[in-house]
Amino acid sequence: MSNTTPKLPIYLDHAATTPCDPRVVQAMLPYFTEMFGNPGSRNHSFGWAAEDAVTKARQRVADLIGADSKEIIFTSGSTESNNLAIKGAANMYAKKPAGQSNRGHIISVIHEHKAVLDPCKRLEKEGFDVTLIDPKADGTVTREMIEAVIRDDTILVTVMWANNEIGTFNEIPQIGELCHDKGIIFHTDATQWVGKMPTNVKTDNVDLLSLSGHKMYGPKGVGALYVRRRRPRVRIIALQEGGGQERGFRAGTANVTGIVGLGKACELCAQDMDSERERLLKLRTKLETMVTDALDVTQINGHPTKRLAHLTNISFGFVEGESLMMALKEIAMSSGSACTSASLEPSYVLKALGVGDDLAHSSLRISMGRWTTEEQIDYAGEKIIEAVNKLRDLSPLYDMHNEGIDITKIEWAAH
Ligand SMILES: Cc1ncc(COP(=O)(O)O)c(C=O)c1O
């Protein structure tokens, strides 16, 4: 254990967003100024330079996920990629035209990101049937679970690769194989997975895959959708019309600087992926061991091993979540997913795993990244232990628990 206090505040919320790698910024800079051309300008060198840059970036994104560059569509991020994939495929493969009911069946999972759930909800209003299955208590989704709900009219399955709140990952290659056997289109929201884990859309049987720049040390506001071109050739209907860019799948002048940044970020992730994962796993193990050794009534949520190395989600019994966050202001973490922490609802992801409201409220998502150091983890671990102990000192319920009283059995009088 080191005695030095690291520079504060400490950022441990990389699942919400990552800093841009300086090498990414460096690669982007010339495209704001000297090489500012529109890649659609086919008749001068400014346009050609921009187009070359976009082509190079497209190849880099494709290389990271084992795709062909023609299969990559640039978007504004995973929210857009998910919308394009889910609505685009549902409308393309619909069994009946718009305005009618029973247009086709879609399968997803209740602990998906809202950027998947909301497009599914929209499609339900537009005449599709949607089945949302529950994950297992460890957060995983298996091939058998999907197989059990497939129907003759199922046209699309969408299952995230790794969950943003608990880091647990799913049997994507097996689910993809099932979908291919049944002739069903398979989409995965791989926002939290790509760049951290080896990915090959071909052998992993994925038809449509969403990824986002700002989760992998690239810029915000840029992402991509992979659309399979062979076995099967997947077709989608564009959501946005206009100048016909991105082969008609996504109209609008390309975000050249963002795309260059995304390409560079993909290249960098590929370079150090395995060593980075090993380093972060050691840090996470250290943090989890520290905290669980020092504190009782503490639970690590999600699957014990099928979990992204850089992320942990821990619930602390007998602690009020907001007070815990307030006590730990110098450490940036999440008390649920970044996108739901604005509301005080307990995390729907943790609820889906069967975690009770109290524990869900008092959970921390801690996600480390490329520049997280051992000193930061030591410091964060110590501060978390100190804060939980202080809050428990004030908790009559914790005292009762220590006296052996089962507080779930107490009948509280209402006045
Ligand atoms: C699993 C998952 N899907 C989708 C998104 C949305 O991505 P973006 O911010 O690129 O729109 C996020 C971001 O939090 C995410 O974690």
Number of strands: 12
Uncertain runs: 337-341
Beta content comes to: 5-15%
- For the record, the CATH class of the largest domain is Alpha Beta
- Second rung of CATH, namely the architecture of the largest domain: 3-Layer(aba) Sandwich
Order of the strands making up the biggest sheet: 2-8-7-6-5-3-4
The biggest beta sheet reads:
7 strands, mixed
The averaged pLDDT comes out at 95
Describe the overall structure:
Mean pLDDT is 95; it is low at 337-341. The chain has two domains: 10-18 and 272-409, Aspartate Aminotransferase, domain 1, CATH 3.90.1150; 22-268, Aspartate Aminotransferase, domain 2 (3-Layer(aba) Sandwich). The strands form three sheets. A seven-stranded mixed β-sheet has the order 2-8-7-6-5-3-4, sandwiched between helices. Helix 3 (78-93) packs parallel to helix 4 (114-125). Helices cover 37% and strands 13% of the residues. The protein has 415 residues and is of the alpha/beta class. It is globular, with a radius of gyration of 23 Å. Pyridoxal-5'-phosphate binds next to helix 3.
Write a short abstract of this structure.
This protein has twelve helices and twelve strands.
Q: How is the topology of this model organized?
A:
Blueprint: E1 10-11, H1 22-28, H2 45-65, E2 72-75, H3 78-93, E3 105-109, H4 114-125, E4 129-133, H5 143-147, E5 154-158, H6 172-182, E6 185-189, E7 208-212, E8 223-227, H7 256-294, E9 298-300, E10 311-316, H8 321-327, E11 331-332, H9 348-352, H10 357-361, E12 363-367, H11 374-393, H12 396-402
Parallel strand pairs: 1-11, 3-4, 3-5, 5-6, 6-7
Antiparallel strand pairs: 2-8, 7-8, 9-10, 10-12
Helix pairs in contact: 1-7, 2-7, 3-4, 7-11
Bound molecules: pyridoxal-5'-phosphate.
